[in-house]
Amino acid sequence: MDEFFPDAILFDGTWFEFNRVQLVRLIVLAVVLIVMCVLASRAKLVPGRGQSIVELLIEFVNGTIIKNTLGLRAGKHFAPFLITLFFFLLAMNLAGVVPGLNLAGTSVIGLPLLAALWTFVVYVTAGVKKRGIAGYLKHETAPPGLPKPIYLLLVPIEFLQVVLIRWASLTIRLLANMVAGHIMLVVFIGLTQGLLLSGTWLVAISPFAGALAIGIYGFEIFVAALQAFIFTILAAVYIQMATADEH
C-alpha cells in the first residue's frame, strides 16, 4: 500500500508536495503529448503504423461512443472532449503495466476525481446552456407524466444523482479497478519470487505462479482499456441525458 502513498520528492509537507505518483503522471502526459504532436506534424495520406493505431482509436471512440450515443450533430460538438478524455485515461491506466513506471496514474484518487469533476462540469454546462438552470434541473429531476406524489420521492433522489452520485461513481469505479489490478500484479509477482527463493519443493510450482502473473498482466491491460472506454461512454451518456430533447 505504500506504493500509493510514496515519500515526497519535493516540497514535503506542503500543498505542492511532489512524489512518485505525480512523476508517473507527468511522464505519461509528456509522452502522450509528444507522440501526438509528432504524429500530427508528420501525418500522411497513407498512414504509418503509429498514425494508423491512433486513427483507429479515434475512429473507435468517434463511431462506437460518440455517434451512437450523441448522434452526428451533438457528437461533433463534444468529440474533442470525449476523445481527449479517452486517450488521457487510457494512457494513465496503462502506466500500471509499463516497466519502470509500474503504477497507473489513476490508481490514486486525485486523477479519477479530477476526470469525474471535469465530466460533471461539461454535462451540467451543456444542460444549463440549452435549458437554463431551472429548466435543466426540471429536465433532470422531474420527468413528465408521473403521478404528482411520486415527485416527492423522485426529485430529491434525481437531484442527488445529478450533483453527486454520477461523478462519485465515475471516480470510485475507475479508482477501485486500477488499485485492484495493481495489488493483484504485486501479489502474484511477489508470490512467484517467494516460491523461487523458498529453497524447498515449492520451487517446483513457481512456474505456475509465474504463468498466473503473466495472465494477470495481460488482464490488467484489458481492464485499463475497458475502464477508459466505460468512463468515456458514461460521460457521453450523461451529456446526452443533459441535452436530449423531450419526447
TrEMBL record:
Keyword annotations of the record: ATP synthesis, Cell membrane, CF(0), Hydrogen ion transport, Ion transport, Membrane, Transmembrane, Transmembrane helix, Transport
Membrane-traversing stretches: 23-41, 78-98, 104-128, 149-168, 180-204, 216-239
Recorded GO MF terms: proton-transporting ATP synthase activity, rotational mechanism
Bilayer topology: Multi-pass membrane protein
NCBIfam families according to UniProt: ATP_synt_6_or_A (TIGR01131)
Similarity remark: Belongs to the ATPase A chain family.
HAMAP family: ATP_synth_a_bact
Protein name: ATP synthase subunit a
Organism, as annotated: Brachybacterium vulturis
